[in-house]
Amino acid sequence: MADRIIIENAAIVTMNDDEDVIFDGSMVIEGNRIVAVGGSEAVSGFDRTNAKIIDAGGKAALPGFVDLHYHTAIGKGYCDHLDLWEILQAFWYPMIRSINTEEAYWAAMASYSESLKAGVTTANDMLRRLPGLARAAVDSGIRVVLSNVVADAEHGLDVLDDNESAYHQCHGMGDGRVEVYLGIEWLPLASEALLVDCRALADELGTGIHIHLNESLGEVEISQQTFGGRRPSEVAYDTGILGPDCVAAHCVHMSDREIGLMRETGTHISHNPSSNAKLGNGIARLPEMLEAGLNIGLGHDSAEGTNSCDLFQVMKWASLVHRAERKDASILQAPQILRMATRNGSLALGHETGELSVGKVADVILINLRNHHFTPWVPGNKTHLISHLVYSAESAAVDTTIVDGTVVMEGREFLLFDEEEVLAKATESFSSCINRMEVPEEYAGLLER
Fold first, then answer.
1. Looking at residue 448, what is its pLDDT?
2. H or E element at residue 171
């Protein structure tokens, strides 16, 4: 790959503090950093010899999306008729108990390639068999934060020792593109002692925590029954889980006190509106959380729960579902939603991405504007452009994906791996897992349709 990439003639959506959009803009990437952004003059002093020149005429350049809550997909479209608890017991837990490292690798390759095609350059991925996922991140070129599905030992998932082992084995792979956090599945499978031990280990390793919190009413009820009347985020606060190194996923059913605890601790939240809707879990109090000053990013959750890794869909849901519920078209405007998908997610993970400015890490996507998604468009009108990005565009509009200064997809063709092989192997892995998985007898009938 060229040491220098020069992008010219793009509409550069910087996502900087002033939310500048530079029309007919240019950008220079050296190594994994952005070294120049501006008009045509921004590239005039750079040697073009041996540089990769990208003519981005008719395209917009954006920071790559950060999918802040993510599960590598093993199978999708198989349990559309089930709610969260039923999917977990009849399908998801049996599947991830049966999966081996090689199958996890191919499942992750399929998930990561789908995400890269949708403009996602960072995935905050919680699953099992992290060495397989880390190898897939290295081979696909994506940036990942990985965590295990940790629960108390009797549930047959992962324990903290598994996550610690994965940290020592995988953290820092791919020239630093692979990080490992500690993952807590959710409170119905976790004791208070496990949560305390998780915080202690995270502090010892100097890493973060990824946890499901307040996703469903059933989870809230189980928490109150198990932990002396305390709601999930209250338990997480009391055990030290919450903090600026913690990403809490979902947070659908939050009390005013719990929102206050998130603010007090600086905990980041992944809002996953399409998954919350499809699984019948409800609508989060997003306007109140934003009003409280919480940092909110966006996640698709799992393709088992949403059937797609397309963060464009998630952006649209993140605006429309709340406008519908509140009967207020003035809330959750497009610029705020786009910021959640880029800068906010990057902030949550402590990354130097999410913005196209000098010195930032070069995670960049190019969006093709010459299609129906962006027609009509008033040239030079940034409000119109950002509206189309949030409300009209789909993943098919992504032309080029650059991660850590490396072009991993160009013209919708992957440069680092064979896409057809990935799709075939992922299907084989799903068939193998589903033939081996053992579903508890009381849930077996749920899969019969």
1. 64
2. none
Q: For residue 37, what are the β-bridge partners?
A: 27
C-beta neighbour count of 433 within 10 angstroms: 21
Give the pair of three-digit tokens for residue 365. Answer: 């996507």
Measure the CA–CA gap between 207 and 212, rounded to whole angstroms. 17
Instruction: Give Dmax over CA atoms of the chain in angstroms.
Output: 69
* Tens-place pLDDT, residues 272-289: 999 999 999 999 999 999
Torsion from C-alpha of 393, 295, 240, 171, nearest 10 degrees: 50
CA 146 – CA 158 distance, rounded (Å): 13
DSSP codes joined into one string, 381-434:
-HHHHHHHHHHT--GGGEEEEEETTEEEEETTEESSS-HHHHHHHHHHHHHHHH
CB 46 within 8 A of CB 6: yes
Tokens (6 digits) for 120? 């996602």
| Cβ within 8 Å of residue 403, ≥6 positions away | 64, 116, 121, 141, 142, 143, 177, 363
Residues paired with residue 179 on neighbouring β-strands, in sequence order: 145
Tokens linked to 101: 């490292």
pLDDT digits (tens, 9 = 90+) for 236-264: 999 999 999 999 999 999 999 999 999 99
Can you read off the two tokens belonging to residue 222? 């189980």
**Sequence-ordered list of residues with C-beta below 8 angstroms from that of 418, at least 6 positions apart, any chain:** none
Q: Tell me if 80 sits within 8 A of 310, measured CB to CB.
A: no
